[in-house]
Amino acid sequence: MTDPRTIIFFPEGAFGPTNNCVGIGNVLRERGHRVVFVLEESFAGTLEAKGFEERPMRLGPPPAEAEAEVPGQFWIDFIRDTAPVFRKSTIEQLGEFIAPTWQALIDGSKYVNPRLTEIFDELAPDVIVEDNVVAFPAISASGRPWVRIVSCNPMEMKDPAIAPFSSGYPVADQTAWPEFLREVRRTHADMWMDFDAFCRANGETGLTYGKLGPEFIAESPLLNLYSYPAEADYEREVPLGPTWHRLDSTIRAAETAWTLPAQLAERDGALIYLSLGSLGSADVALMQRLVDLLATTENRVIVSKGPLADQITLHDNQVGEAFLPQPAILPQVDLVITHGGNNTVTEAFHHGKPMIVLPLFWDQVDNAQRVEETGFGRRLSTYGFRDDELTDAIDELVAD
């Protein structure tokens, strides 16, 4: 064992990046290191319960005193307000959803900068691990060694041979790439210039904007990691630099056992796991359509119902809860129906499970396209698929 060190993990405030960091943090803690997570206040206690230290922070002003913050409420409201945009093409999403999301992330980085400085001064970490998509200048300004983790599809590391990030375009057809990149520049350039100036003024070396679009976060000069299996990774025209390392998977060990309920164990049929993540599952109409359609098949279905679980009605061939121990369930199933979040996709790859991907936005569309073009599953139109498209895809994948 090496000498104990203090390691800070600073993941994006989403389950995928956080779970990814938990898997790595567990290994480091087992080796005797002190592992501290920097988390949004509303999720305080979640990683403390797993044995980690926590330091709270906020990415925006606190609510009025009379308001109560409910973990997950943000995502419920988010889906309500933005679900219509997810029905549009990815190039239309750039101005209506992607750019506003980047701006919200940038605003969070600006707001939290003083608090991060306080935390780093207090803990004097030996290394800071950031799993996020935007820069936080306090990290570079701390003078501490830092590591960047990419929990998104590898398209985030741009390359001339790879389609634009969040486009969902195929690698084999570059026809639409130039128009997409022009729209990226139109909708993102001013925002990038403002953020680059903020980063430079607060200790960051600066960001870049190349032919393939803007970078909202810099590479670490020491170590950069991303998680994607070699079989599904992209061939690059320009190899990543020597500080970049690909991990086939960073999968959490199952913390609890999960036994298939008798309601399903006593039935025949393929076993399917349905999870659209915190965001997708908050679209009750979409979830209900899926469970109603799956009820017409001979398959058995485990449903991760999400934050509005009480509004989703299951059927006799289905079981589910608001939140389920996914790492314990995935090894048992025959097929995964997912929104294409990188965490679920890489976990399904890890366990060798075929996927049907119903993407909404961000890198979900890129993961869906990659699953389709590598033959490890099918990509369907999330709001436009026909009933027989889904049922036929299930039958084909289960029988393959």
Total tally of structural domains? 2
Sequence stretches where pLDDT stays below 50 over 5 or more residues: none
Tally of strands: 15
CATH class of the largest domain: Alpha Beta
Strand order of the largest sheet: 3-2-1-4-5-8-9
Structure description:
With 400 residues, the chain is an alpha/beta fold. It has two domains: 6-60 and 69-104 and 113-247, Glycogen Phosphorylase B (Rossmann fold); 262-399, Glycogen Phosphorylase B (Rossmann fold). The protein has helices spanning 15-30, 73-86, 90-123, 137-141, 177-201, 262-265, 277-280, 284-294, 326-329, 342-350, 364-374, 387-399, and strands at residues 6-11, 34-40, 53-57, 127-131, 146-150, 209-210, 213-214, 223-227, 244-247, 271-275, 300-304, 318-321, 335-338, 355-357, 377-379. It has a seven-stranded parallel beta sheet with strand order 3-2-1-4-5-8-9, with helices on both faces. α3 runs parallel beside α5 (177-201). The longest helix is centred in the N-terminal third of the chain and has 34 residues, at 90-123. It is globular and about 60 Å long. The termini are far apart.
